[in-house]
């Protein structure tokens, strides 16, 4: 159950083709495209075993949700919201910035928010109020004016409360690929959005990828992962607890311990056995441990090299001197530095975002952040002096490219 | 030829379905996937009417290209390179930044470059050395170590010189959808890249969209466009010159003048007639003028509202007081402020990027910039004090979500 891995084993598992659900998803997309809201009601009945009579969650339903949630949880959500907001606020770009003016030319960048975005919040095995915060806060900080949320029926009261805390505009009880299709294509009830963010199962991810010509997405999402770089100073009980936490997400979740200490894996294995008994989700954990394991390496540099090839969603650094490791790492969704930084902190309340690229995608994609909800326009303010300063270069290059009218549009301004 | 438009006419033209080339492109992708380099040689022969014996441009071929290019053009390219570099350098994010430490928690963002990217540089109607600079410079500034370029054979000497000036790693003479397939899937000669950027025709764009599960792209590209917001102070000759410059790109290019001055369109039309005669590409220009025209509006606010609905690739602001217009605009690829700022300046040498979203995509996408070539990892450094500060919130939310092992991974650290 807890065994040595090779890097190749991990990488080939990561690259394994996902279950092909594209046929089923295409049928769902076609149904939503053809019959709109009616298709959504029917698909909810088929997949969620509920016949709904409306899709949009009402104010009354949100009030009821508050009544059913422990006030201590509401307080915790509010505290988490505040910490997530503070960190994302630091990522915000200036609305408009300019270079110094030189030669009569001032250049700048103007940042503006998207107008309408959609988030998908899974239901099923667990409620994910934290995901609502992770998707809504960066959009709010960016200044997006309409933020909608789809989640499978029946909506979990925690999800509704989190959506209210986070200022979500509208919540719809629609799940799966049909939710993605509705937000991408629009129905009578759900107007289309510009971008869809948030995690989801294979159907949701397939729908996001297949509808990418109609809507933008954050990035493809797969099962959650952790890599832990540890040396002889790491505590086996902490490492084991982190591996169990990762494993309880999903039977397909995966953990890898990368260590310079050949004795550590056995100690961690013992702690895993001890802790797994108490874990309510131990069946899921045992399945996830099946694709988890450890790599023993010679040096910390080797550990970093292996981790960079894996490009883990979560990277935990539990070594004597973690900051030089942080400096050298290139590929990771979110990095947890030191033995007192379990991934659970970033999942809920440190302030960083937990919507992160998986399956090696951290080589290419950033985790969800404020810039997913903005776009930029470049700006140039050019005076008569400015066109004189660059007109000659513009005209030479335009002429070389055979674009004579481009050259004329510069020359006509310099000849007056 | 130069007529009044309605906003609806423009928007429906923008949204018109592109010619469906997906069948032809899928065949090309399949050929490259199946036969690699051999397919590339065959497709070059079929589409470019050249039987190549190698794909990678040699050092000798680059030296020869320098000999055939006017030194004044090399100098202009170098000057443009320098201005583009300076502006893109301003966009660069810090490699690693941290928030202030509070409660034992320090949060940060680490920015790292992609490793290997590809650019597509069109051949055909004209040479595009400027596009080489626009794609390569932001990648270089970001710190990308391998930047490859595909361009149809025979490679234009200007393109080769620009690639050398811009520090492109390898240049391959492969054009069209087959170039995109080669960079996405890899062949013996061309190793796959992480992201493909740059403009292209309908085949290139279709290939980029179709291969998006295998490679990331910048954004979909279509025919070039300009909107010009002008009042009674605008000079009709300048406006006409800008419209002609836009029109010479492509028979499908489009220009719209949005003006509060009902007399301006006729004057602009007269200047267009006068200037078009001298333009070597007048046939292309006349075709492009067929889908161009003007909107007369009551107020500058109305002009801004129309422009934001169009979300033009290029927005030129030629009014008495342009800065308040700049402040209010939300959707535009690149904004040219004042009557001495023709789009040609941004195409070549002001320093801004000319690879920009078209067809309304500026509502959602930014033009090419340094952040297209980087990704970020969030960081948290948490001390014992830190886990004490947020552990309670983490454990409450984890328990509420049913993720008990997450709660344990926090609690185990607080109980020692």
UniProtKB/TrEMBL annotation, chains A, B:
Gene3D superfamilies: 1.20.5.1300, Nitrogenase molybdenum iron protein domain. This is Histidinol dehydrogenase. Zn(2+) binds at residues 246, 249, 347, 406. The active site is at residues 313-314. The lineage of its organism: Archaea, Methanobacteriati, Methanobacteriota, Stenosarchaea group, Methanomicrobia. Its EC number is 1.1.1.23. Keywords: Amino-acid biosynthesis, Histidine biosynthesis, Metal-binding, NAD, Oxidoreductase, Zinc. NCBIfam families: hisD (TIGR00069). It catalyses: L-histidinol + 2 NAD(+) + H2O = L-histidine + 2 NADH + 3 H(+). InterPro entries: Ald_DH/histidinol_DH, Histidinol_DH_CS, Histidinol_DH_monofunct, Hstdl_DH. The keyword Transferase does not apply. Substrate binds at residues 224, 246, 249, 314, 347, 401, 406. GO terms for biological process: L-histidine biosynthetic process. It is an enzyme of class 1 (oxidoreductase). Pathway: Amino-acid biosynthesis; L-histidine biosynthesis; L-histidine from 5-phospho-alpha-D-ribose 1-diphosphate: step 9/9. One of its GO terms (cellular component) is cytoplasm. Transmembrane segments: none annotated. It holds the Pfam family Histidinol_dh.
